[in-house]
Structures
1.
Amino acid sequence: MVKKIYSVLLFIILSCSQSKDIIKAEESKQSDGIFDRKTARTFSPDRVAQEQIELIIKAAFASPTGGNQRSCEFIVVTDRNVMLNLKKGNPYSQALDTAPLTIVVAVNTKTAIYPELLTLEAGIAAQSILAQASKLGFSSVPMSIAPQRNRIQGVSEALNIPSEVIPQVMICIGQPAIDAVSSASTNYYDKNKVHYNKY
């Protein structure tokens, strides 16, 4: 009888332990990459190391593209004066005042095989940048450029971008300022917006 009770208790303990391990595994899957992303609009002056910049850019290049056309190009900005020039014609871009790193995702219309996919591909590359920056422990904030003509023109002039290359989005990256409000990516999952096999 004692052995039977002991066996039942051991089974319950092991089952609970395994359940906790499963929950932890599920949580760890969600607390990685994009789920850990934090938004900041005011940054500390700490620089992003060159090897970290290259890793972020490599993540962008790893993004899928239609027909493997690879028409995205990336302008890496670390110069404070250039950052301030980027603000011209770009409302709501206060993050440029303090960001140690800004990456502009642009598309080259001259090398495109499927020009109708360029905007989509720029968005995918931008998401890869956000996820990799998060993986490295940085906060980030994306800001739109296209399709607003004044923003495209302002960024193109500030960065001396040729006419066949169209800037799409820019992303500020860095450590948030000590007194900055840095908000984490929140779980916005809504089962009412998820449809299987048909709407």
2.
Amino acid sequence: MSAFWSIWISVITLAVVFGVTWLLFATRKSEKFKETTEETVGHAFDGIEEYDNPLPKWWFNMFLITVVFSLGYLALYPGLGNFKGLLGWTSYNQWEEEIAHAEEVYAPVFAKYAALSIEELNQPGNETGLKMGQRMFANNCSVCHGVGGVGAYGFPNLTDNDWLYGGQPDTIVSTIVNGRQGGMPAWGAILGEDGIQDVTNYVLSLSGSEHNATAAERGQTQFNTLCAACHMPTGEGMQALGAPNLTDNIWLYGGSFEQIAHTLRVGRAGVMPAHKDLLSDDKIHLISAYVYSLSK
């Protein structure tokens, strides 16, 4: 932060500490009685009178200890603007230390399963490894793909056998490591609204859904010109490009007329983030094994 805000925060923080300390001593000095007394403060609350006794010494001393502790804390740890504290402590450094400790403790456990292939991890007797992968999936992947991997609107279902890029172990690992970048171009400006309607009807016809046969016939020509390069002339898609199969009833963004038309009109750009810098190879291996098990 800028020097101004650093000084501003420091001044306010110290002013509060010294301010309440002054208030404590000023209040103690103004006390009428220094020892326990039977005198009251002169008024009653619901018939209850309050003795005009001084603050208990233990309370006063505890407050002083708190003030000393707070000043010591502000000297040792961050709390005064840009001042990093005499110990140089940061939450990031502590996080790194905890991660390094966890890696050291669990390294032998991960090494045991890293020696097994993904296919072997899906064999009886390796349930513990899959459960580890399941927990890591829940922590890192479920926000998009759901706790059970069933997916959501715009996020693929991992429990079926329909794969955008392929469901082989090596392909799953590659997807998690490097991520994926979907690229469905927008055709609205090229096709026009009439063309969008025609191609939508043809796409619906590929999966046997209700459609207008006349419009679909017109749309087939446009599909072959603009879409077949990725989705193939048959509409069965191409996993090498991540182009989905249009002949089944599995839709990433919905299979209604309006949803398909919207996809054609504005395109799609789904992103699967790369996890190579977020997860170790051993963790990716176990997550991949769990994902592989979901569609078996």
3.
Amino acid sequence: MHEVPLATTLFFTAILVALITCLALEEKLHAKKSVIVGVFAILSLVLGAAFDLLPFGNVLVGGHEIALPVYIPGIDWNVIAIILGSSLFVDVTSRSGLFTWIALKLTKTSGGDPLRLLIFYGLMTVVFSAVLNNVTAMIIVGSLTVVSLRKLNRQSLLLGFLVTEGLLTNVGGLLTLISSVPNIIVGNIANIGFLTFFKIAAPYVVVTTFVTLWLAKKFFGIKRLATDTERQEAATLVATFDENDGIESPRFFYFSAVMGALFILALSFQSVLPLEKELGMGFVALFFAAIALVAYKHEVHKFYAAVDWDLLGFFAALFVVINVMEHAQVLAYLGKGISALIALGDLGGPAALVAGAAAASSVTDNIPLAAMLAKILAADGLPSDSPLWWCVIFGANLGGNITPIGSASTVVAVTIIHREKLHLSFGGFVKTAILFAIVQIILAIAYVLAASAVGWI
């Protein structure tokens, strides 16, 4: 890396700020993420070449020099493979009716009691967010919540349920390495294994889930049914749900359940299994996606069409932009700011990093934020067991609970709320959610500090 003039670095910093601003104003610009970042990727590459910042020439791959366009090596293809493979696998297996079956089983088990429903739906939201993705989890649980509370004549509780579920998607998104995109990015750069990620994140997720549910019970006034008559009426109403309605093929249902369990096991032990270790987690995700697609081999085009190509294009372009920024020394200067936060001490440093990441991700997309912070920390040579990686992970995920635009799942929750003609403005959401978000962030800071003190991370 040759020396870059400060004026050039500041110029590219302005481009990065403009990109983040455009992503925050995505709806007002009426443009998809991939288009916005794609335009900035092209602009960054042209200017990077003009300023003689990019390393043109052959690339060393597997001990051999090969010719590749300068923007190809800048893309983290393992992240792209994980997202593509996981989304295809989940999309195919969800066709079995497995997740709807689980949801309806829990609904019937609750007996229609509002508080038990809140607890069951909250736990289901967390689990679904961990094994599916935040948006899919919110769509499944949110849609079932609307149907269930209507049948039980409890529409007055709908707003509280949907807000709580929206907040819990981002808590559940912390549970596994593939639960959210920031997890995938940071975990991949930090070289954190699937099983290690789960072992560290699980205690926090369990505690925060129950604290969030307790706060929701108090804040929204959700109580248990008081009389035997009310309990009997509610139980009779939920008994009309048929969990087998969405199961078209029992054979595929059981196949999906087994494959889902094997998928999680394969990811858990990927870092220790001989072949998987070399091929990587992206290969595991694509491998299981390919097996799942065999079940629908004559109509795979439907699943290809359902892939979020906008998200994949967004990622590829984002990695290109970040690569150019790295060569322009923008990340190095941002790293000095991060170093200043870290220098606040063993207590102040992690706390400031969690809070700063959360505040930033509440008003803009947490994906570029996580990618930039991870790159900056990687440049400092941090080991995979450094607590600072977890500061970024917790902050980037939990910041989505501060505003309704902080994460895709809270956007979905608010969309369902408005579809049901429930009044909740932008300010109303912040006023409602801020207490939950502050408690969750404080718990995250305390957990990182405590886990670091005892050597857990």
